[in-house]
Amino acid sequence: MTRDPHPRHPALEDALGTVRARHGHRALLSAAHLPAARPWSTGLPLDRLSAVGGLPRGRLSLLRGAPGSGKLSLALSLVARATRGLGRVAVLDPRCRFDPALGWLVADPEALTVVQVPPPAAGGAAVTLVRAGVGLLLVLEPPPARALAAIGPAAARSGSLVLATAGPEGAEALAHASSLTFALERVRWLWERGQVVGLRTLVECVKNRLGPAGRCAVLEIRYVSDRSPSGGLPIRELPRSEAPGLGRGPCRGWSAAG
Amino acid sequence: MVVVAGERVLAVSEEAERVGLEPGLTLRQAEALCPTATVAGSDPAATARLADEIAAALLELAPAVEVRADGRIWMDLEGVTGVGRALGEARDRLHRLTGALPRLGLAPGPFTAAVAAARARPGRVLVVADARAFLAPLPVRELGLDPEREGRLELLGLRTLGAVAALGPHRLETQLGPVGRTAALLARGEEPLPLRPWRPPAGIEVRRRLDPPVEDAERLGFVARALVDDLVTALGRRGAGARRLQVRLGIEDGAPEVREGAVDPLWGRGELLALVVEWLRDWRPAGAVNELGIEVTEPGPPGRRQLGLWRDEASIEEVDAALERLRARHGPRAGLRLRPGLPNSPLPLRRYRLEPR
Fold first, then answer.
1. Which residue among A88, A101, A103 sits closest to B316, beta carbon to beta carbon?
2. Which of A168, B190, B262, B322 is the most exposed, fewest CB within 10 Å of its CB?
């Protein structure tokens, strides 16, 4: 006698039926039919670090690091590039931190909207935009956990790409909700003629629900007046030969160019 | 089965029709013909709902549709290309909506088409090219006159539509009055009676009773989801958007509470649901809610619906609508765009500025 590999439990079937009746047939999805991740190729080294070829749509990605680690520069470069390929892009800026001088970075200014709502309303605004299917939403302030609980499913349905920045400490809810987390650590500033012209930062994928975590790379971000052709600051990955002595920390999968 | 309204038979099933029952008979006559027939009272509300559904479904195939409670439906196919395809699609839609295969008639006018349809087999079309020739041999009973006028035609020796047509409208009017004139024109295949086209109801409403009454906003949101799905289906059937939306809460032991607002034409489920849930979240009803109703009091053009064919454009429009809602709630700074300032300024801060969209 062979055992049924999927024995039916009447009480469980009743419960599943109730969920379907109340929330629709899409409320329950077999693991075998979960949609595959649809990455957005950023054109930056993050594509390789993510192990899926880009930032995943329908998910939350997080850039985490201390002030001055380059997370905001990297985030704004991603936003600038997204204006070309992802339709409407929005920056949720409840504390009015967005610098309009960065306008020159943006490939398509018409596609970018800056949303400055009062901080208590930021979570709701984020949910509204994600439900509407915004291509990319950059959240400059961690939203409350209650809003995160709604942003995740909304993004999964609409396919919106949500990008957030956070400091190294705190924002546990954001870290928990993210599908992809990059930790940034500034290696050093770049100086030319007494001026800071950029920085080098170690970027490590510390959390990845879509593939293996642990890959890292050193990026060089330059603050120049000419933006990259795709939008954003010029960002390059340093080959290993140009980063001697680096690799401190638990960087298990060194991903080097060259 | 027979459906009666008052003492008259309104409609009969196919089985009842085979034993001689037909609309127009009195209830006593029907019972005499078929004592075992099931008699059901008419449900005007359900009939009207079904009629609206049928008309809305067929309005996509023809510019004018008339639906009557006795089960007869007319579609004006004048100018429609692909008449055969339209008829086939109409047959399929009627079958889906009613569960029965319709009989179809295609003729130059409504009266002839109705007579032809009555003679067609279920699911088939009877096409009439020459209305007068088709109608000529048929009995005068087809005109649907009252028994007294029918008797007078009998006395005049007019037993077929051909005979009525030959007499002419003027002479028949002297016998039967204006009704006679109309009858003669109908018998000739000249259609003096135009269709009375169905007009979609001004508003679209969905509502649900909640038993037991609900006090929790989250549970109301769940119910709202299902209602919004029905509303979106109804809007889609009409190819309309919502210009003005009304949400109504029935309060246990209290007066209903209503909230209404003008919105940029919305048609998408996500937009409508987001708006309704936002209202429900801020609502503080005076008591437990025993009914939730959502009504589009002012339908509008679909606008963005056609753009749904291209996903990216549809997303952009939906995002723009979401930004408009945020601006309406939080002010113009809820949606700022980059604008060139002083492009040659040595100060980068001056080169671009943020301004409301």
1. A88
2. B262
Q: Identify the H or E element spanning B110.
A: helix B110-119
Q: Give the tens place of pLDDT for each residue, A176-208.
A: 889 999 999 999 999 888 888 899 999 999 999
H-helix or E-strand spanning residue B313: helix B311-330
Residue whose structure tokens are 């009803």: B285
* Contact call for residues A83 and A111 (beta carbons, < 8 A): yes
* Chain B residue with Cα closest to A137: B319
- Identify the DSSP state of B26: B
Summarised one tens digit per residue, pLDDT across range B217-227 is 878 888 888 88
> For residue B321, which residues of chain A lie inside 8 Å, CB to CB?
132
Does B303 have pLDDT greater than 50?
A: no
Of B336, B348, B353, the CB nearest to A116: B336
Give the chain A residue whose CA is nearest to the CA of B319. A132
Which H or E run contains B352?
Answer: strand B352-356
Closest-CA residue of B relative to A22 is: B222
- For tokens 């967005």, what's the residue? A98
DSSP assignment of B229-269: HHHHHHHHHHT-EEEEEEEEEEETTS--EEEEEEEEEE--H
Domains of chain A (ranges; CATH) run 37-254 (3.40.50.300)
ipTM for the complex shown: 0.78
Tokens, residue B56:
């809305």
The pLDDT tens digits for A46-105 are: 998 998 889 999 999 999 999 999 999 999 999 988 887 787 899 999 988 888 877 777
Chain A residues with CB under 8 Å of B263 CB are none
Share of chain B above pLDDT 90, in %: 18
A129 vs B46: which has the higher pLDDT: A129
Domains of chain B, with CATH numbers?
Answer: 1-42 (3.40.1170.60), 47-199 (1.10.150.20), 204-309 (3.30.1490.100)
Residue contact A121–B270, C-beta within 8 A: no
A227 lies within 8 A of chain B by CB: no
d(CA B108, CA B111): 9
Q: List, for residues B240-290, the tens digit of each pLDDT value.
A: 677 788 999 999 888 899 988 876 656 567 677 778 888 888 888 888 999
Task: Give chain B positions within 8 Å (CB) of A102.
Answer: 352
Q: Which of B127, B61, B48 is nearest to B91 (CA)?
A: B61
Say which amino acid occupies A202: L
The three-state (H, E, C) secondary structure of A34-68, written as one string = CCCCCEECCCCCHHHHHCCCCEECCCEEEEEECCC
Tell me the nearest-neighbour CA distance from B218 into chain A, angstroms.
13
Distances from the Cα of A215 to the Cα of A48, A77, A175, A183, angstroms: 8, 21, 18, 11
Tell which of A38, A108, A115 to mutate to test the B interface (max B CBs under 10 Å). A115
CB contact under 8 A, A113 and B357: yes
Read off the pLDDT band of B165 (50, 70, 90): very high
